[in-house]
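Service request form, structural biology core

Requester: graduate student, group of Dr. S.
Request type: structure prediction, single chain
Budget code: on file
Notes: please return the result as structure tokens.

Sequence provided:
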Amino acid sequence: MALTSLVVCADAKAVQVLTRILREMGIRPEHCGDPHEAAARLGSKHFDVLLVDCADEAPALALIANTKANAATQDILAIAIVDANNNVREAFAKGANFALYRPVSAERAGSSLRAARSLMPGERRRKPRVAARGPVSLSHAAGENIPAKLLDLSEDGVAIHSERALPPSCKIYFEFKLPDQYSTLRLSGDVVWQDFMGRVGLSFSRVPQSSRQLLDGWLRENLFLQLQAGAVPAELGSPAPPAAKASETSVSSDERRIQSRLACQFGAEVYPLGSKVPQRCTLSDIGPGGCYVETTEALPANTAVEIVVRTHDLKLRLRGKVRSTHRGYGMGVEFDQKTREDREEVKRLIAAQTADPEVSIE
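Core staff response, request fulfilled:
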């Protein structure tokens, strides 16, 4: 089911902006202008996100504090809408998870809500996600055979990139082939979230037994491989590895780099090491151990590469080696961090994305 939100604000213009952005993100909004009415609504209905305007600070902070003190609503993501006249530290002390600053413009609100997405209950994934690339065909009540791209998979759902926005409250039917597999999976699901960059999270509504066996087998094998390469968050746990020779599973703790990835959209140039001919591409995720490079001309596995990333403020050079190749879509690159300078470049790139999830590309 889609996430739901309650917007507690008396400013009609701010409510209009927030409501539109929440809907575009796949979060169903409700609105009320009075904190006392909001408290009653929170007591009778489930919400995932609470946005509270602190223009009238005392009742707003009381609403946040009471919401967080109640066992039934303590997991809600509370966002305080504040300005220079508010005590932001006090808002956080009362339980606010995030602050959205006035004036509530579309640009500012959109950036803040996307930054808060990782804290939203629907984003606290309980199942491991495995990166995957390949074409997807989507259909729903308002369209058929809509092209999309596979981004990652779990037991419970899939993340895709779609050129068209999908209706948030409509059953989605989709089919795709698992990488390196011949069988086609035909599944249905619901939109859980979507963002302005075309990324969409879908939860499976029902998986046929034959598809379940194929999906689970692929996930077990590829999750183990990605855990070794450092591409899966540690909190998701470590599954049993697929059958292999003893020498293949004897991996040192240093090699089991388990690191999280951040979604991004960095424009970049990739050079095979020693070449002066650039290949324009896009970095779609980054982490301390490596990145995924979207390009239609992926390089062969084990190719040593240099990646040049430019933003408004930075020009970074990263060296690494191609570890996985997906023809027509891109390649996974493991960073070479033998020197302190190499490690610092990786840290600067991650810091740039963390500071501004919508950083411009040059």
